[in-house]
Design brief:
This protein is an alpha+beta fold. It has helices at residues 40-43, 223-238, 260-266, 276-288, 325-330, 344-358, 386-393; strands at residues 23-24, 45-46, 64-69, 76-83, 89-92, 98-99, 110-111, 118-119, 126-130, 135-144, 150-153, 158-161, 176-185, 188-193, 198-199, 203-209, 212-216, 246-248, 254-258, 291-294, 301-307, 310-313, 369-370, 419-422, 425-432. It has seven helices and 25 strands. The strands form five sheets. Strands 4, 5, 6, 8, 10, 13, 14 and 24 form an eight-stranded antiparallel β-sheet that branches. Strands 9-3-25-16-17 form a five-stranded mixed β-sheet, with no helix packed on it. α2 packs antiparallel against α7 (386-393). It is globular and about 65 Å long. Residues 60-419 form the GH64 domain.
């Protein structure tokens, strides 16, 4: 399950500028939230659209939720957002009921003043509730302190404006927080811990179902500071702005570590030449050698070669230009974008090709077939995505999305995605603050 992106754009004056290192946040108000109209359906959770699921299954619509608090500091608040089975925007309240935010005609975000937080007890406590019905495109937000949510008009429908990890002036920017993604519908539950955008509050998952228990341990208790330290050391080695990914408040407190694709939206010159030589070497190699992409579908394996300026794959409806840094880090832009009319082969090649770039496996032994290598071969040469490398090193079991296609794995190899899923779920437990 891919993330529902936070909907808030960056303050216009910050885009394209070189920023001080580390990044310092200065939380603002509703007027510091800028919504990009062309991204309104990608960035804003819009009510009134069809949600997943048709209600015709044995899957449990009243899924149990346990919030296990192992965090040793400030009071913890949890916010549960998503869409009901009709597509309406909902929060799940502490009593296990849905709260529907009111619609608005305002194009300026309007603060939700209803108390939608689920407050947790102290360290060692467990808070239990049940979902009243299916929920899709959901997030369980966990914060040390408060988060602020807003409603905005989205073409006659209510749009939910969620906290943004990429806007230094977002009203919630000064909070320490993280989230779990989930959809529970007629097909069952899909939930994951995601660090695609940032590393923050340590979160893990445990899913109890009729078939047993699945667990994703999440990041270590000190992952934010340790990942930041590792990135600072890497910046000293290669001169790339890895240290700029560390985000602090005005007092100097470290809050989170931002993913490089998101940082580039703040400083579009960052990492500008980081991948250039590697990409050129890949293009040179596959001009005279064949790259085989295993689509892991009925289309089987397809052969790819560089022809002219593009990598072209057999049966693909279009080729791939040389990717730039934001393309590689984000996996959703430039040659790695997926259009509505793209064929099945293209939809299979994109995640596997981008994962190979992110993990720097295209030029190492065995890299001519993607995916084919085990995780021990990921991130072994430079340049690579050190953010993803260090995030995985500080996950207690190595599981949890560190980039968008972290679920790509060779047949027979485990996925690194940190996903729990089952058609007959009973109780989902979110473990907050690391192991007890």
């Amino acid at each position: 399950m891919h993330s529902v992106t936070a909907l808030v754009a960056l303050a216009a004056g910050l885009i394209g500028q070189s920023l001080a290192m580390p990044l310092i946040v200065h939380p603002g108000n509703a007027h510091d939230i800028i919504i990009i109209p062309e991204e309104i359906h990608d960035g804003i959770l819009v009510g009134g659209t069809a949600a997943e699921g048709d209600g015709q299954s044995t899957s449990n619509p009243q899924l149990g939720l346990v919030l296990q608090n192992n965090y040793g500091a400030a009071p913890i608040n949890v916010y549960i957002t998503g869409q009901d089975s009709s597509g309406g925007i909902v929060f799940v309240l502490p009593d296990g009921t849905f709260y529907y935010p009111p619609s608005t005609t305002s194009t300026t975000p309007v603060l939700i003043t209803e108390n939608v937080a689920v407050p947790l007890g102290g360290k060692g406590s467990a808070t239990s509730l049940s979902f009243p019905d299916y929920i899709s495109s959901g997030r369980i937000w966990v914060a040390a302190g408060d988060l602020k949510f807003y409603i905005v008009d989205a073409g006659g429908r209510a749009g939910l404006v969620e906290p943004s990890s990429t806007n230094p002036t977002d009203p919630s920017a000064g909070s320490d927080w993280g989230f779990v993604e989930l959809t529970n519908n007629a097909g069952g539950i899909y939930a994951d811990v995601s660090f695609v955008d940032f590393v923050g509050m340590p979160l893990g998952l445990s899913l109890k179902s009729r078939d047993g228990v699945q667990t994703v341990q999440g990041t270590s208790t000190n992952a934010v500071s340790e990942v930041c330290s590792a990135l600072q050391a890497q910046a000293a080695i290669d001169g790339a702005p890895w240290d700029a990914l560390c985000v602090k408040d005005a007092s100097g407190k470290l809050l989170r570590v931002m993913a490089p694709a998101d940082y580039i939206t703040l400083d579009n010159g960052a990492f500008s030449n980081y991948w250039t030589d590697y990409v050129n070497q890949v293009w040179d190699h596959y001009t005279s050698n064949t790259l085989t992409i295993d689509t892991q579908t009925s289309n089987g394996k397809v052969a790819c070669r560089v022809v002219g300026d593009e990598l072209k794959c057999e049966g693909d409806n279009r080729g791939y230009a040389k990717p730039g840094p934001v393309d590689i880090f984000g996996c959703d832009r430039g040659p790695f974008s997926i259009a509505e009319n793209d064929g099945d082969i293209h939809r299979a090649v994109v995640p596997r090709l981008c994962a190979a770039f992110v993990r720097s496996t295209l030029l190492i032994p065995g890299g001519d077939v993607q995916p084919s290598l085990s995780s021990e071969n990921y991130y072994t040469v430079s340049p690579t995505n050190y953010y993803s490398k260090f995030v995985h090193e500080h996950e207690l079991d190595g599981l949890g999305y560190a980039f968008a296609y972290d679920d790509v794995a060779a047949d027979g190899q485990p996925s690194a995605a940190g996903l729990v899923n089952n058609p007959n779920p009973e109780v989902l437990t979110v473990i907050i603050g690391g192991p007890a």
